[in-house]
Amino acid sequence: MKKSIQAMKWNLAGTAGGIMNRLSYPLQKDNGKVFLFDTSIDTDNLGDFIIMKYCGDILHSIFTNHQFVCVPTHTVPSDEQEAVAKSTKYKFVCGTNLLTSHIEEHWNWRLPDGIRRKFNYRNTILLGAGWKGYQGECSAYSRMAYHCILNPNVIHSVRDSYTEQQLCAAGISNVINTGCPTMWRLTPEFCKTIPVAKATKVVTTITDYRRDAVHDQMMLDILSRNYECIYLWIQGDNDEEYLTSLNVPANLVKIPHSLGAYEEILNRGCIDYVGTRLHAGIFALNHQIRSIILAVDNRAIEMGKDTNLPVILRENIEDELEVLINAEFETNIRLPHENIDCFLNQFMTKEPRNV
To answer: Is residue 186 classed exposed, middle or buried when 0-12, 13-18 and 19+ CB atoms within 10 A define those classes?
Structure first.
């Protein structure tokens, strides 16, 4: 049954578990700060910078008079940062796939050990977060941690239906699928400005931590046959090392490990994007670039299902990629606008409550 957003707006008073009743902290008041868990600090993956760029723009447009305190998700916050988090009402974690069913084993979001210390981060709000891979149900410890950390009195934003289902199964029902905030600008009107026919040049990416030499080589060979020039953007530090293990086409030019360098290529226009990096593809779409994203994990697969993002499975390259490159196709992104408005309006029209 489809979740009623209006019902969710008025039914967010549930408890976050027995742990909430056993631990007591002063109510948080708005101290003029926004505590932002920033995935782009201490990372070698420039996709995190793309995520934080769009999430930051959204939050700055809402909290225009607030000071932003940014702390990394990749390292445990300092004692001083933890003290700020404890006293700050608005805390957001953005975009990336840092939710998991087994945080006791491996968690991309580094927080102090122990439930009691995690409770210092209570009332944290999700903005376009996603799940790390396809996993089973949450462990008891993970459920308890999420109930301690996530605000039970706001509507959380996640980027795909699978993440929404996983959180609901863990007892976090105040959550809606808004799609990834990096896509929120891709309205029907904007998508009409994206070319439908193949360009003469292409920019591509490979993914060092999801290596598949057979299919990645196939992708490069297909691009070499169909485009005059291939630009390969080094999104992750180890992408260049991975590239040395492949047969590099003669018409391939590397773009440095810099978001500015990538954006400069996109801004030239007359170019397509075809590659395995999800947010490089979304960034290209935001620059009115015809794009094909080759899915290497659950993120692109699930977001493609929900939003009609132009995605094909990497293992289907041989049968599908060259045909799609040479076909004319419209970019037709389907965004859950009602859910996006629901998430945003709760900060613009009323104060989220504290436990």
So the answer is: buried
Asked whether the beta carbons of 203 and 233 are under 8 A apart, the reply is: yes
Q: What is the pLDDT of residues 275-296, one digit of tens each?
A: 999 999 999 999 999 999 999 9
The tens digit of pLDDT for each residue in 123-179 reads 999 999 999 888 889 999 889 889 988 999 999 999 999 999 999 999 999 999 999
User: Mean pLDDT lowest for which of 23-32, 46-55, 294-303?
Assistant: 23-32
Opening angle at CA 329, ends 324 and 335, nearest 5: 115
Calpha distance 335→228 (Å, rounded): 34
Summarised one tens digit per residue, pLDDT across range 296-308 is 998 899 999 999 9
Q: What's the predicted TM-score (pTM) here? A: 0.88
The one-letter amino acid at 54: Y
What amino acid occupies position 194?
I
Rg of the Cα atoms in the chain: 21
Can you tell me which residue has the tokens 């609901």?
Answer: 168
Q: Dihedral (C-alpha) 246, 247, 251, 255: value to the nearest 10 degrees?
A: 20
CA distances from 137 to 131, 162, 166, 167, 333 (A): 12, 12, 7, 9, 30
152-174 core/surface letters (b: 16 or more CB in 10 A; e: else): bebbbbbbbebbbebbeebebbb
d(CA 111, CA 36): 14
Residue 123 makes CB contacts below 8 A (sequence gap 6+) with: 28, 89, 91, 150, 151, 153, 352, 354, 355
